[in-house]
Description:
heterodimer, A: Uridine Diphospho-n-acetylenolpyruvylglucosamine Reductase, domain 2, Enolase-like, domain 1, 4-stranded antiparallel sheet, 29% helix, B: alpha+beta, Ubiquitin-like (UB roll), DNA polymerase, domain 1
Amino acid sequence: MRDFSYLRANSIDAARQAAALPGAMLLAGGTTLIDLAKCGVTEPETVVDITHLNGLDGITVDDRGATIGALARMSSVADHADIKSRFPAVSEALWQAASAQLRNMATIGGNLMQRTRCPYFRDPANFPACNKRTPGSGCSAIGGVTRGHAVLGTSEACIATYPGDLATALVAFDATVHLGDRQVAADDFFLLPGTTPDREHAIEPGEMITAISIPASAAAGRSTYLKVRDRQSYEFAAASAAVGIEFEADGRTIRDLRVALGGVATKPWRARAVEEALKGKVLEADTVKQASLLAIEAAVDHGANHYKIELAPRVIARAILKVGETA
Amino acid sequence: MTSKTRIPIQLQINGRRHELEVEPRVTLLDALRDHLGLTGTKKGCDQGQCGACTVHVDGQRVLACLTLAAQAEGRAVTSIEGLAEGDGTLHAVQAAFLEQDAFQCGYCTPGQIMSAVACIREGHAGSDDEIREYMAGNLCRCGAYPHIVAAVRQAALEVASSMETAS
Lengths: 327, 167
């Protein structure tokens, strides 16, 4: 790891100003930044430590929704009683991510900024070509070992999978990312790779995530996060789904449905076609399985990741039936 | 405060204050092992994947390899050396690991024990399944997992009964 200057921010404004300087990067939990600095992927000139700022780690939940400070730790949010009861998918996405130690370190703001686990991206010494790291250098993954790569939202420049769990739930429930006074819908905060895979988030130099907010909804209150992976714990998703459901008064006709996919796309992937196909329908296994296929209509595989195209709709259907049948 | 050479930091480790000068990139793990001679905390992957470097910062289990030493300033750090009592009496988790033979080579053990102490304190040791889930961040290449789960289960019961006795 190359050495850097260390600067401890004592206010949000100071942090923003320092982070706007060339080569400066914000440091919170460190689980992405220090890791990638050790891989040689990021080489910050200056690290701006924001973990000593006060007042940015609050969690408040009321009838309107939840507001979570950017420095709240993943573990605190996962274990928060009101998050568990009113946003179960958010709590489940968090406790199924990473390990207990990493969840104690990683912050909510930093979680949104985590980078892909594409092994080519993470290994600049052996794979100099990576459009995400070095724009225009090419993509080592295309034609390489692609078992973990995305099948949705890919481009000719990049097929790296967005690895996070939390953001999948945030996108499903229309969360907002607060950058000080500016607000961005979670779905818009994550960018498709297109021709500029180096640009992953709708955040400008000098901006800092200060909080996220999630509006309360019946669907969020009756939700789950289903994560399917190569081993039972401490692993990224092969495919995952954040799902929430609200029924009409009859308890079986779907009034509202939220579906987002993780582990299969280049960004947290809202599956609106599935939602629209099932709204107004009676919850029934075959209908749900049929509608879930709409999520992968535009999917493109690169060989070894073909299984994700079969897996993703099954994960969606299982998650919908799971939250729906607990009536 | 900005510097690219060495920066002075104060660390509070196992109740003792240490003053040292380190490059900003020095991790808490390297500060413990190379600067302070506290080699109980192990360097496994050095990349946040194996859990061998688990320590407590302000009572929370974290990975020392992904924490900058400078970030730990003003926080209370506990390493495996700080777990036993002053007279050498082992912590309940240490004793349970011995009794259950919860290791083979022992390299992951300090991290396993620090993680287990926190796991029990967090209330995540209620069943074998829960122990396996919440101890998943500590890898054991010898595969001593069944005995590790048994040790955590035993220690959790002992901690619970000692708390009942105390109340």
